[in-house]
Amino acid sequence: MANNKIKELRQPDVVGSTQQVIPEFYVNSVSISPSLYEFELTHMLLDSESRMKGAFNVRMSPQTAKSVLELLHEEVTAYEKQHGKIPT
User: Fold this and answer.
1) How far is CA 15 from CA 8, 20, 37, 43, in A?
2) Dist. CA 9–CA 75, nearest whole Å
3) In the prediction, which pLDDT does 10 show?
4) Neighbours of 55 (CB within 10 A)
5) 71, 12 in Cβ contact below 8 A?
6) Could you give the CA distance from residue 69 to residue 56 in angstroms, rounded to a whole number?
7) How far out from the chain centre does Cα 61 lie?
8) Beta-bridge partner residues of 44
9) Going by C-beta distance under 8 Å and a sequence separation of 6 or more, which residues neighbour residue 17?
10) Which residues on adjacent β-strands are paired with residue 30?
């Protein structure tokens, strides 16, 4: 069942007949604030002196957060198999 949720995250349905443009952002820092009902991820772009150049928040249910966790784990594992261990 988790695999179905992961596939849904990868391929969202587009409503209507026109293609939607999804904006892209580059971030180099993320903070996570969980609560009973949601996870808030603050994505930031910091410069070399740790000054914030931009940020945005993403809020999701605990169920969606867990699906994202599973998807991210799967993708990082596949990446490391192909390119080697990612240093942390």
Assistant:
1) 14, 9, 27, 27
2) 13
3) 56
4) 15
5) no
6) 19
7) 13
8) 29, 55
9) none
10) 43
Structure tokens at 53: 């150049």
Query: Which residue is listed with tokens 């993320």?
Result: 30
For residue 22, the SS3 value is: coil
The whole-angstrom separation of Cα 88 and Cα 83 is 15
Residue 54, H or E segment: strand 52-60
CA distance 86 to 40: 25
Strands of the sheet containing 52-60, edge to edge, are: 29-34, 39-46, 52-60
Question: Is residue 1 over pLDDT 90?
Answer: no
Amino acid identity for residue 11 in this structure:
Q
The residue ranking higher by pLDDT, 65 or 8, is 65
Per-residue confidence band for 11, with pLDDT thresholds at 50, 70 and 90: low
17-67 confidence digits (pLDDT tens): 577 788 899 999 999 999 999 999 999 999 999 999 999 999 999 999 999
